[in-house]
Amino acid sequence: xxxxxxxxxxxxxxxxxxxxxxxxxxxxxxxxxxxxxxxxxxxxxxxxxxxxxxxxxxxxxxxxxxxxxxxxxxxxxxxxxxxxxxxxxxxxxxxxxxxxxxxxxxxxxxxxxxxxxxxxxxxxxxxxxxxxxxxxxxxxxxxxxxxxxxxxxxxxxxxxxxxxxxxxxxxxxxxxxxxxxxxxxxxxxxxxxxxxxxxxxxxxxxxxxxxxxxxxxxxxxxxxxxxxxxxxxxxxxxxxxxxxxxxxxxxxxxxxxxxxxxxxxxxxxxxxxxxxxxxxxxxxxxxxxxxxxxxxxxxxxxxxxxxxxxxxxxxxxxxxxxxxxxxxxxxxxxxxxxxxxxxxxxxxxxxxxxxxxxxxxxxxxxxxxxxxxxxxxxxxxxxxxxxxxxxxxxxxxxxxxxxxxxxxxxxxxx
Length: 414
Fold this sequence. Notes:
Elements (H helix, E strand, L loop, with lengths): L2 H34 L2 H28 L2 H24 L5 H29 L5 H52 L15 H13 L2 H21 L2 H8 L4 H25 L5 H19 L5 H13 L1 H15 L5 H13 L1 H21 L1 H22 L4 H4 L1 H4 L7
Helix pairs in contact: 1-4, 1-5, 2-4, 2-6, 2-13, 2-14, 3-4, 3-5, 4-13, 5-9, 5-12, 6-13, 7-13, 7-14, 7-15, 8-15, 9-11, 9-12, 10-11, 10-12, 10-15, 14-15
């Protein structure tokens, strides 16, 4: 089994693992907010996940290019299962605390630093260039299917099964991911001839590669900006929903599921369509339209209206990410994609832990006290989402970024 057929089997395992992880994350969001009643608790959960993910990404990218990609993905999926097993053990012993959630969040973030560059590089080796955008659309579809089903399943199963049942289902998903990884042939990186370099030099290579190519750097700086703005708002969105609905897990599940459904629709559209011929249009419009929907969530009232806009926000994210991914897969040589993609992610995603660290205190100490918890967070959505719209449209005024596909030559086949 090779090519797209092998990718489909790998996709099934990753999709099942994502469902398990999303169910656990939904359940832990409720658990943490009910324990403390603070938006800061939710922002710290995200912060402790993203900080090690970002800091370790360059080293992880170097490891991904040096050793078989299968090992990195197996380590991430097995480690995720161990983390969930630890939470299950603490719960059964009656000792599960919010502090344990922070520790596990940091551990899984460190593992994720390996998984994403390994998966991205592996797919580039498994597939033909014409299938890159379709595969990216299917991966977005898997994430979105998990986003649709996981909140509904978690909300429905929490009462009959309890938190331990959610953890058990997460373990089953991790097992499915490991099994499919063992079944699918994943090409290893070709050994590079010449002088051996240190792991540190390899970790820094990706940054040098990007800095030498201003169009790629420009793209990532745009992603840094939009990630910072939207994360400031999206991190505390669950707190707004819970604050305005008297801690209704049904309302939160509706909004989360609608968001996932929008991602499913966007992923399906991209999988069938393949995206615009000029990929930067997908990047700029995806940024602007998804940010607009986030901003409008701060204006409307009620779970149904929030859910409709959450659907629209997520509808454009596969177009945004898939178009960007196709540009990078076409322009970066296969043998260095692990290092370059890790550096690329660090540049764009370093905004996330910064925004998460700020968003909770902004909600609890600035906007909340002045306008009320729910209304204060709604204002944050309107403000930061609106700025995200402006940033997305700004790309059309920057020639090096607007013309990135023309200015940069395609990478030669490995």
